[in-house]
Amino acid sequence: MAFVAIVVLVVQLRGELKRLQEEPIDSLHWNVTQMELDVVRFEAAARLALAVPGSDLGDLKMRFDLFYNRAATVMQGSMFARLGLSDAVTPLKTQMRAFMDETAALIDGDEVSLRAGLPQVVEQVGALRQDLRATAIQVIDVNAAMEDARRASLSGMLQRLAIASVTLVLLLLGLLGLVVTLNRQAGRRAREVQRITSRLAATVGTSLDGVIVAGMDGRVVDFNAAAETIFGYARAEAVGQPLSSLIIPPQHRAAHEAGMERMKTTGIRHVVDAGRIKITAMRRNGEEFPVELSIASNDSPEGMIFIAYLRDISQARAAEAALVAARDEAQAAERTKTSFIAVMSHEMRTPLNGVIGALEVLGRGRLEPRQERFLTLARNSARQLLRHVNDVLDISRVDAGASGVLDDRFDLPALVATLVDPLRPQAAQKGLGIEVEMLGSFPPLMGDPFRIGQILQNFVSNAIKFTDQGSITVEAEVLPVSPDQVELELRVTDTGIGIAETDQERIFEDFVMVDPSFGRSVGGTGLGLAISRRLASAMSGEVGVESEPGQGSCFWLRLPLRKAEARDTAPQAGQADLPVTPALDVLVVEDNETNRIVLEDMLTHLGHRVTLAVDGGEGVEKARAKRFDLILMDLSMPLMDGWTAATVIRMGGASRASRILAVTAHVRPDAMDRFAESGMDGWLAKPLSTRSLAEALAQGADPAPGAAPASDDLLDRERLEDLRQITDGGGFGRLLETFRVHVEKTLAAVEGGVETDPFDTMAALLHASVGAAAVVGAKRLCEEFARAEAAAVAADRPALLAACKTLPATWAATWAAFGALTQPG
Amino acid sequence: MIKNLRATILAGACALMAGAALADTLPAPQGEVILTVSGAISTLNGAEVLALDQRLLDSLPQHSFTTSTIWTEGTATYSGVLLRDLLAASGAKGATVKLTALNDYTITMPAADAREDGPLLAYLADGEPMSRRDKGPVWLIYPFDDVASYRTEQTYARSIWQLNRIEIAN
Fold this sequence. Notes:
The complex is a heterodimer.
Chain A (H helix, E strand, L loop, with lengths): L1 H21 L2 H27 L6 H19 L2 H5 L2 H23 L2 H96 L3 E6 L4 E4 L1 H7 L3 H4 L4 H5 L2 H17 L10 E6 L5 E13 L2 E10 L1 H51 L4 H31 L8 E3 L1 H9 L3 H6 L3 E7 L5 E3 L1 H18 L4 E10 L4 E10 L21 H7 L5 H11 L3 E7 L3 E12 L21 E5 L3 H13 L3 E5 L2 H10 L4 E5 L7 H10 L7 E6 L8 H5 L4 E4 L4 H10 L17 H11 L2 H24 L5 H18 L2 H15 L3 H9 L1 H16 L3
Parallel strand pairs in A: 7-9, 13-14, 13-15, 15-16, 16-17
Antiparallel strand pairs in A: 1-2, 1-5, 3-4, 4-5, 6-8, 8-12, 9-10, 10-12, 11-12
Helix pairs in contact in A: 1-6, 2-3, 2-6, 3-5, 5-6, 11-12, 11-20, 12-17, 13-15, 15-17, 18-23, 18-24, 18-25, 19-20, 23-24, 24-25, 24-28, 25-26, 26-27, 26-28
Chain B lengths: L1 H20 L11 E7 L9 E5 H6 L3 E6 L6 E8 H7 L6 E6 L4 E5 L9 E6 L2 E2 L9 E3 L11 H6 L4 E7 L1
Parallel strand pairs in B: 1-10
Antiparallel strand pairs in B: 1-2, 3-4, 4-7, 5-6, 5-10, 7-8, 7-9
């Protein structure tokens, strides 16, 4: 900008100076003055000629010519115009032209007329002189003004030039400063680049990984020390060589070349910038080895370059292979061990069942007290051993995923009751009560009741084992998750010894017992919780514990479950649809009286002949004595249980080849190995329905487990309907009568002993009634008996009194309801 | 015929020889003297002077150019003798040339300025003799149009008209 201004100014100035140089301004000035002089001289010559007649006129003529020349020059030229005086001098010009023409005629004429005209010439020239004088002064004034203006213009121009120059100088100084700064920056940058370059070189040089830089032509550009070590080439040897012949095994070269070519032509990359890959490379000596590498690409001024970071992983590979081999070996050993244990357990169980059966048979004979003691010892030991073996087999079964998960409809309160009730006597032995608290309402659910039961049973068994005083509480709660889904939470809380924080996770591991000596004293393998955890995770649920040593523990199970769909309310199929089976001889082995009566009624109703046995021992005895077509075997019985009884029956006697069906409430027997070993042919789920029983008898196959009954508050009407169908009214009445006698006897005993009798007596008394009430469908009564029983078990007198208080009223209501049912119509 | 021819040749030779001798002497002017050269000169034809009439001027190398001037309108072709040639013809030795006009206007200039493309002692304008009333009889004029460096105040001042005397000084 300043530079342009300066250029413009200089050009202007030059023009001005040139004009100054060329323009003859003062020449006018000079000529006008000279013209005045010429006029004066001419006038003088004229006066002289006038004064001296006869004098020479040559000088006069020359003076005139000189004036004439001057006047013509001044008038003719453009000088006046340049000064802007053209108009001002027009009168003078006219006057002079007239004078000059007139006088020239006289001068050029004869002497006589010249002399005669002289006076007039003198007069005219005098006047002319005055005018010229005025003009001359005017010219000088104008000229001076012009000069001033010109000087001012020149000075202004010079001033502007000076300002522009100073500006330019400042600008240049600024630019200089900028250049200096830029130069410094460039220097810094250069040093930085130098530093980075050397750092990079050091980084590449000292890298533990091989670094190879190659160009687009596939030739090596750089080769670091680690690469030298890995491949065996010196850097100088490698640089400039094609990669393919240098480090790529011959069999891979074609693929490498093809890849490079593809990348060059299409730009598609498979390897470059693809992260870590593993390939085979080749050393100088031809040895091939695995490398892990990643290749990055970069645009450099010399074109695309590729930077490969390589790591010799032959050792890592070898180590990995060794590890894999070690792992496989270990796994194989583990499998062998597991399979050995499984086989051993399996092999042990058959003879063990034999031992137990033999001991039972032995026990039925007459024995001396000493022999009796040893026999009890042998029996208990054998049972414990069997339990251990079963646990181990259970674990291997669950681990092998051999048992699928059921998706059956079940009724949670009923499930909990059937599981907890059989454990009450065991708890009562230690003076413990089991309290069941069903929190909230429980819709029918879909799930695997057997597994849930197994877990709950394990929790409760543990609680009994590890609690010496206080109580055990079983809580169940169903939390809605979505319209279809719920989360079931079962909690078993005890007031036992508790578990230290550090052991809380461990106890769910296999064979872990916090205190092995204690574990031995209470009996157990330490597998119960491990099995529970496996079962829970098989059902997508989880188990856990919260515990405070010395305060007690709370084991919980959480399961996601589906709600069962609304029950099919269509009337049950009539009797006519029931499968018809030829009359059979049936042995019912069942310790619970009510259950026995129900089963007997059902079977009789179906046209079979029924023999009853009250426990395993009696069952075995009867089975040996007579051949039965079918034996229905309750599994959990005191003294000899169903498993053992079945095993012993198979060992010999009249019924050794009879069909034996297990009857069970909480364990799915066919999920257990011992099921087959015990010689059972099938199983039936409690509570039994006539239909399921009839079908089982007809098909000789596993019927579907009986569905849990729907219930109202007071009575389980479906169950009662079922009972009425199988008992033909008369039988039903007899059953109810038996029940009435039992209840009234119990109520009397309760009333007499509720305030004074020992808790265990009360508990046993009430326990029997709980089962009986459940069988006949006296729902509320059953619940109240259970509550009372729980209070007795818990040794809680006030609770017991409270629970027993409502019993007579509930019984009255129940009996009234039964009466309504039995009324005709 | 041959005699005449020989005489002519002889006359020519004599004339050539006379030309060479002209460096020192020139014939006296026969017509009206137009220009008088005096001072440090070697060629004289009068009392200490070289007096030139029209015929003598015409005998010197003639030169002409066309130019405009600041005193005239339009251009004109001026003819006459280059100052240089006149100085050479007069055998001038001095370094300074002083020129004076009829009205006694005088200028002084270095003799070295009298160059081939320099000042002309013009006495013809467009082929017409220049009268005393129109810058005559002799006007020292420069080729203003051809040579820009002459368009200066000094050169304008040196363009002396009605020139009639030249004096060479050291």
